[in-house]
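Box 3.1. Reading complex inputs
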Amino acid sequence: MAVNLRRHLATLRFGHYLGWSIEANWTHPVVFGLYSIVRPLFASLILVFIYRIVVRGDLQAGMFEFLYVGNAFFVYVINTLSGIGMMIFDDREHYQMLKYIYLAPIRMYWYILGRSAAKITISTGAVVITLVAGLLFFDLDLSWSAIDWPLLIFAIVSGLLATLAVGVILAGIALITAMHSFSTTEAVAGVFYLASGCIYPIDILPGWLQVVAKILPFTYWMELVRRGMLGARLSPALAQHTNGTLVAVMAVSTAVLLLVSHAGFRMCEHGARRWGKLDQKTDH
Amino acid sequence: MKTRPATNLRAIWARSYVRIVGANRELSWVFFEIFLPLLNVSAYVFVYRALEAPPEYEGYVIIGGAMLAYWLNVLWSMASQFYWEKEMGNLELYLMAPISRVAILLGMAFGGMFMSSVRALAILAMGVFLFGVDFQVSSVGGLLGTFVITLVALYGLGMLLSSLFMLLGREGWHLSMVLQEPVYLASGFYFPVKFLGLTTAFVASLVPLTLGMDAMRQLAFPKASETALLAVHWEVGILALLAALFLWLAVRSLESMERRGRESGRLTLKWQ
């Protein structure tokens, strides 16, 4: 058992290292650093412009912080999930290495987890720099003393684990859906972005979409992150829930997602082997 | 030896066929092509609703979202296309064939315009039926003319980028990534570009969508003229100049990059 765990952790570590190298070694580290922050920073700048200059936001106090913090943290979800489809495609079709990884004495689940974790690592730099830019240049009203650190740390850890779990599930689906791997992962990330209220309170959504929002764990993740960082409860639909309720919801849904990711990935992996999808090439 | 025009026309059709017919054979691609941009555009409409912005801003987002389909197509299916062709081994086939390279670029452009138009129409339909955006078009002919000249200039830029990216490896892929959000901001995909300040707006006008969207918004929403960068006729005139400039530069650059690629042996270099 202990030997297995050590081996799995080693696989995770090497998966992370490989993921990092593939993402980063095409250029100088400084250029890579800049590249990593450009997209999230400019996505935040669009919101800053919309709020500060276009609409001249003079609305409910804390609205700017609400959307800025939500957008900054959602980078984890977008980067990780959108990158998963590409990762499977690269391994299977572009570099054609997937079959060799299967020959190695490792469990694919841990390898994928490591590759996804590399995306989390890269995204962390982008999230931190986006928040720092908000503090330095955009009057983001964050008070260190107002931060509920235990809540924030729990929110970040559980949210990242949930993101990794969803990433692995999508990787499994990408294994058996060769021609649709990018689109599926991007679509899922897009639905989460739209429905989980990362840049607006979910109350603004139409009724049926609010139902979807309340099913998604990322909605509660965003709410917990904001409560931990800002102490704010701007969404009436979620304000009724206590911090304890949200923590419980997030803990249970993360645990369920991790279990489903493990079982789901094994199922997809089995299907991919059975249907001969592991070395399928569709990019002709 | 000169290639006969008919051969080049067939090459244009052959290259665009893949995008006009081939891509639409895979129905899930068509679905995702339409569905994915709708998500992002809807999110920005909801942002404006949450911020209680005037309703015309939702219309600006819809026009921006529709044109975003073309920008993504230019980045991913024009600029970085030769990178993929190189990786898949098609580039050398194009270079060996007795056709003009420009015919390949034109085929990519026409096919890309068709593919993106499907997305753009879906976004416009969503704007009207789902979000109730009220387009008050003052001149249908003017709007269509502006749209066409914007696309010619934009795909001219795409052809230029395609030839510039020809020798790049993974950095070309990443460069396309980096050109997404900054251009969304600078070209005013989600708000009138004038709000960025005149200097930034004029620099951003090098991307034809900046002036194209500004002009189309003026023609589709009466209030847009209050926040317009320039009058429509000026914007159309500049777009025509940009179109001619980009197409000329694309042809020159393609010749130069191909020659450099042959000399340095990078035209067939994979997995860089």
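In summary: Chain A touches chain B at residues 26-27, 35, 38-43, 45-47, 49-51, 53-55, 57, 59, 63, 67, 94-95, 179-180, 183-184, 186-187, 190-191, 193-194, 199-201, 204-205, 283-284 (CB under 8 Å).
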